[in-house]
Amino acid sequence: MTIGRPTCVFLCGVAAVFGITTAASAALATYEAESATIFRGGFENTHAGFTGTGYVNLINEVGSYVEWSVSASQSAPASLTLRFANGTTADRRMDVSVNGVVVASSLSFPGTGAWTTWRTQPVSAMLNLGTNTVRVTSLTADGGPNLDRLDVDDSGTPTPTPTATATPTATPVGGTDWGRKMVDSTMTRKPSPSDLGTWEYSRALFLWGEYLVWQRTRDPRYLQYIKNWVDSKVSSDGTLNASIPRLDNVLPGNLLIAMYRETGLAKYKTAAATVRKRFDTYPRTSDGGFLHQTSSTMKGELWADGTYMALPFLLRYGQTFNDATYTNDETSRQIAIYSSHLKASNGLLYHAYDEDGSVSWDDPTTHHSKEFWCRATGWFGMSLVEELEVLPETHPRRAAVLANLQSFVAGLVRYQDPATGRWFQVMDKGSMSDNWTETSCSAMHTYVISRAVQRGYVSSSYAPNAAKGFQGVLAKISLGTDGLTNLRDVCVGTDVGSYSYYIGRTRATNDLHGLGAFLIMYEQLRANGGT
Asked: Catalytic residue positions?
């Protein structure tokens, strides 16, 4: 195949319609897919609505790809916008790589309703001065969507292509990029790995949020900060200098996978395998649920928190290291087991379950705890979303996971505070005078609703709930006199307890639970117009 010449399309007039500010000299270079390098696919012009002379239909298999040779006028962040059509209901996910480095992992290309209905998917990436390669690679057995073209804006101010099918990027409150500002502030406060702390889930949650900000901004300081922390826990031969006595210690494994994807260094794969192998002997309940901790004092306990501690790592590990048969089956099974013990008819999750009923907090009949603690519910909701991101359409448990998410989102909306858009610390008791809206779980719930709407898992009628949640969480962030961010009303780490115990927990500022949840939410909502 040959490499086509770009066509320049000036945006000034169109940008005004969409409220997007562009530099006067910014131009959009268009690269048609039919003129790119095509591996395991071919040229077609059967379905109307394409630009150029046609489009590329990739063969239905993992690994088929289209690769463009792209010229950049400067080394700077750029907007890459892929125009595609997907006439099926399956999400035909693809990796996007620039110069051999993945810049968007498992990017969504959902159904567009028909093969003649074309939509766009934006990606931010750093381009080098001169010639760059941009490749999109199929990740599913269905191959990728039909690809029409790639639009590249290398003006240094990346924004989504302003077409009628694109969602304009949300304008941050006060013009502040709160994702960057929060990361910069935290790195100022905690400049070294030792400042951030040990191999622990809340640290890793923040760093995962920072990784999402890096994927958008490509600021090399962010990736280096994450790598420095991970390297302080992993020896050069891949030895993981941490133990895994509880599910909480699994969540940092996501960073091992991220570092392997970004660097290709074998030590990260070796360390990730250590975390994965822990599940071969990890203790379980009699029906197979992963125990929250392995200590004898917590024997038989399942916590809703544990789903997010463990399942996203397993899903990503299987996807990255050819272990998906096990990880897809195991994670969907865990969702079913945890739901059977913790999920209530209102769609929410009780915090924990004790198999033998020997603890003070359990219900004597059901053996689950008595309250709906907000962040425990948030962990579970994010696990449902992560499960559906990876679980194949044909998997026998996918329909059950989807139904679980749908009832869960309905429950979230039922208990959202109409005044603030946030959620209460004890979710179903918002009328209690001493109850309070908690920031980390509000960010989690907002993220879940937004992603569920974006993917088509739930009705678009829930989009206003995500938008209201977003504004409610943003109301809790501000700049101090030192110019650093402060995120308020974040519950500190919490065990299982009574209503009064949850209400009495410390309402911290800049607790890492809140910072990580905020960044995950912010990167989702920022890219989807605040909804």
From this structure: 305
